[in-house]
């Protein structure tokens, strides 16, 4: 969860650069720009970095499990509507995509195939203690807004991988499982850094995130590699961070740094999972 939030905040600034470049030049951000983040001297967080919808909805899922009898729809709506009232974010962007806003403000059943389901699912992988329950709760947490097989598959791959990593399966075992049951993960890092295009479609960005995790060597390395492939950077880094936490744990320095970007409600929620001593602002 915290890994997901660190990925989201770190990726937020870079996602803005990706979208800006795409709008201005009709091409993806250049390879040379994208890979600068691999240099550990380049800060992961910028003054303008911010938590985004990935963090808000991850918190909603966590809260629904801990305090809301797994009423995911109720908590997603409550968290979403509360956030919507805050208006534009640090980058003058809407806080949620148009489709999600429509779902939040209507009684429609959501049928999105977007990666919004996978980006918010990590608490399910962390909080339930057998695989069948993890997978059943993944479906329950996904279908209110993403009643779509593509979105459910993406979320299921992420929560399943987190559960297996938490239960002492090695990264290699988990990747093999994902390759057999979910996606082939046939990518090449440099090719992605050169050519990966912005996509919020689950079947296009979730496997990229899983691949990046598969070639990571540590938590920070995973986040930096995730941002280096461009595209929907906050969400890819969020998903990668959620897996990297289960595999490597979260680096203490990043845990401290990310606090600056979180509000008290988020900090309090995280305290209930990680312990107050560690998580006082
Ligand atoms: Mg986001």
Please render the helix and strand layout as text.
Layout: H1 2-25, H2 31-34, H3 53-67, H4 72-84, H5 98-104, H6 116-119, H7 122-127, H8 131-142, H9 149-166, H10 171-181, H11 189-195, H12 202-214, H13 219-228, H14 233-248, H15 252-259, H16 264-274
Helix pairs in contact: 1-13, 1-14, 3-4, 8-9, 9-10, 9-12, 9-14, 12-14, 13-14
Please describe what this structure looks like.
The chain is mostly helical and 281 residues long. The protein has a single domain (2-274), classed as ADP-ribosylation/Crystallin J1 (ADP-ribosylglycohydrolase fold, Orthogonal Bundle), CATH 1.10.4080. Helix content is 64%, strand content 0%. It has 16 helices and no strands. The chain has helices at 2-25, 31-34, 53-67, 72-84, 98-104, 116-119, 122-127, 131-142, 149-166, 171-181, 189-195, 202-214, 219-228, 233-248, 252-259, 264-274. Helix 1 packs antiparallel against helix 14 (233-248), helix 8 packs antiparallel against helix 9 and helix 9 runs antiparallel to helix 10. The longest helix has 24 residues, at 2-25. The radius of gyration is 17 Å and the shape is globular. The mean pLDDT is 95.
